[in-house]
């Protein structure tokens, strides 16, 4: 399978997927419990309630941690559809092990040989259904917002180089990692994501040179600001308060001037 859209590996999308799994699991287990002889999750009995809280806490912490690992793997190597499938199955196996371990502490009348296959089957159903729904949405939405992309050659994986005024290469990074740039006198500060952290690099050049280096990949939204349009999560198109918000946490709203308002709106509509 080809590399998947980078939107599917954003922190917001993956963490919302975990939330979706938690809600779905609660509803699913209410329907599944009458047909299972090993099911014990409950909030009625004090002993079982403690086990239920521990089970959900460990499972959610594990899934959140696994999503951080998944983001890092995609950032370093790129994750294909088969890779994502294998990763998801691995998650199901580990969550099943967590369930079995806690069950053996809560209930003494179950056999490990009977418990693990049943637990794995149930966990697979709980994870597979939300994953199918979430990843289908993520794939379609990711292709939609990724400029100039196609399933066979996602543009976000390309490496671009940024030069200084003398033509020397000062920074090379993937398009998908570029967030925005700010012009400051004779310098331009490039903001980008690396290992899940927003970093910046000051380069002695002009905003015009940055536009030339990243032609079609970064868009001017203000006299002093340029943005990666694929990273825009929200555009406030109020005539008296124009700004965009990027999908990376911790970044302040970026101003949009009236002269670039229509251009930004047009690009986002595509």
What descriptive keywords fit this protein?
elongated, alpha+beta, 49% helix, single chain, 270 residues, 3-stranded antiparallel beta sheet
Shape: elongated
Average of pLDDT: 82
Please outline the major beta sheet. 5 strands, antiparallel
* Tally of strands: 10
Query: What percentage of residues falls in helices of 4 or more residues?
Result: 40-55%
Low-confidence stretches: 147-154
Briefly, what is this?
The chain has 270 residues and is α+β, with helices and mostly antiparallel strands.
Account of the 3D structure:
By secondary structure, the protein is α+β, with helices and mostly antiparallel strands. The protein has helices at 11-32, 46-76, 81-106, 112-145, 207-213, 258-269, and strands spanning 159-163, 169-174, 178-184, 187-194, 197-203, 219-220, 225-227, 232-238, 241-246, 254-255. The protein has a five-stranded antiparallel β-sheet, covered by helices on one side. The model is unreliable at 147-154 (pLDDT under 50).
Record the SSE blueprint.
Elements: H1 11-32, H2 46-76, H3 81-106, H4 112-145, E1 159-163, E2 169-174, E3 178-184, E4 187-194, E5 197-203, H5 207-213, E6 219-220, E7 225-227, E8 232-238, E9 241-246, E10 254-255, H6 258-269
Antiparallel strand pairs: 1-2, 3-4, 3-7, 4-5, 6-7, 8-9, 9-10
Helix pairs in contact: 1-2, 1-4, 2-3, 3-4
